[in-house]
């Protein structure tokens, strides 16, 4: 009888609150976090990820190993690449190849992490060009069952008209979405939580990365990687973002820790997220 009551309560919860809140989030890892470890030993580094209990990844690079061999190690360690990176020029000039690569990994997302520009001179013309490229490539990807997400780095938050260049991108994104890196949004002068609430349908992936308290911020898109700290110990509102992402049904949140202490910090970050 008790089991039937529990099942009934679970059914009611789904009806009233939706499946999103129950099943929404998976915590993964952006493989770039372990780029230095991959240089030393690829098999043991992938095993380390498995030991952490992580099963989903954002990647696309095989770090010098033949790609099929790398994919074999991913399968051996129960690791699935759900999102792959793509360069801006690849999206502009060879989107079909980007589709092919994503499909070869079984990924359903493609992320682009940088818009080429001249030094610190990023303006509306760069933004408009990027939107054109992302919409054109995004249409091709979407027709193949893959979603394109642009990962802002902070220079997109420079003022434009009554808002920012990012506002222009978001308002003109027809065939692409966004991956929020909370560190870079914060570093660029925006509030990640407020931005999620401002564009609730635009963000489909997250990078979770915290910033050492007192870090000097700017909108250049560059910073010292050693400012990456254990989630929940820095100045970014990780708890607020995670809670809002759950409400919005953002499925994948990738820890990205670029500092030299990554191997020590990731397990602590995972424990912090479990506590939420």
Which residues sit in consecutive blocks of at least 5 with pLDDT less than 50? Answer: 6-23
SSE series: HHEHHEHEHHEHEEEHEHHEEEHEH
Overall, the morphology is: globular
Return the domain count: 1
Distance between the terminal alpha carbons, to the nearest Å?
31 Å
> Strand pairing plus helix content: what structural class?
alpha/beta
The main pleated sheet reads as: 8 strands, parallel, barrel
Number of helices: 13
Mean pLDDT: 93
CATH H-level superfamily title: Divalent-metal-dependent TIM barrel enzymes
What is the CATH architecture annotation?
A: Alpha-Beta Barrel
**What's the total count of β strands?**
12
What is the CATH first-level class name? Alpha Beta
Task: Please estimate the helix content.
Answer: 40-55%
**Cα radius of gyration in angstroms:** 19 Å
Spatial strand arrangement across the major sheet = 1-2-3-4-5-8-9-12
In terms of DSSP E residues, the strand content is 15-25%
Report on this model:
The chain is α/β, with parallel strands linked by helices and 276 residues long. It has a single domain, classed as Alpha-Beta Barrel (TIM Barrel). Helices cover 46% and strands 17% of the residues. It has 13 helices and twelve strands. The chain has an eight-stranded parallel barrel, surrounded by four helices. The protein has a two-stranded antiparallel ribbon with strand order 6-7. A two-stranded antiparallel ribbon has the order 10-11. Helix 7 packs across helix 8, helix 8 runs parallel beside helix 9 (165-171) and helix 11 (192-198) runs parallel beside helix 12 (238-248).
């Amino acid at each position: 009888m008790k089991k039937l009551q529990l099942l009934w309560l679970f059914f009611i919860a789904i009806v009233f609150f939706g499946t999103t809140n129950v099943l929404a989030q998976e915590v993964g890892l952006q493989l770039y976090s372990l780029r230095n470890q991959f240089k030393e030993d690829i098999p043991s580094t992938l095993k380390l990820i498995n030991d952490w209990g992580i099963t989903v990844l954002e990647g696309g690079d095989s770090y010098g190993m033949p790609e099929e061999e790398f994919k074999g190690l991913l399968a051996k360690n129960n690791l699935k690449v759900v999102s792959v990176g793509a360069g801006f020029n690849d999206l502009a000039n060879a989107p079909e190849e980007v589709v092919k690569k994503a499909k070869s990994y079984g990924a359903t997302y493609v992320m682009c992490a940088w818009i080429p520009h001249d030094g610190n001179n990023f303006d509306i013309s760069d933004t408009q060009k990027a939107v054109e490229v992302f919409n054109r490539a995004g249409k091709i990807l979407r027709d193949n069952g893959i979603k394109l997400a642009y990962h802002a780095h902070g220079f997109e938050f420079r003022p434009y008209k009554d808002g920012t260049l990012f506002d222009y991108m978001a308002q003109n994104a027809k065939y692409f979405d966004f991956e929020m890196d909370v560190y870079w949004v914060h570093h660029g002068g925006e509030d990640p939580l407020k931005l999620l609430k401002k564009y609730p349908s635009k963000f489909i992936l997250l990078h979770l990365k915290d910033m050492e308290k007192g870090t000097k911020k700017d909108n250049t898109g560059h910073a010292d990687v050693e400012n990456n700290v254990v989630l929940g110990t820095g100045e970014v509102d990780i708890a607020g973002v995670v809670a809002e992402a759950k409400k919005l049904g953002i499925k994948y949140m990738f820890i990205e820790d670029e500092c030299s202490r990554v191997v020590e910090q990731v397990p602590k970050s995972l424990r912090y997220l479990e506590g939420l």
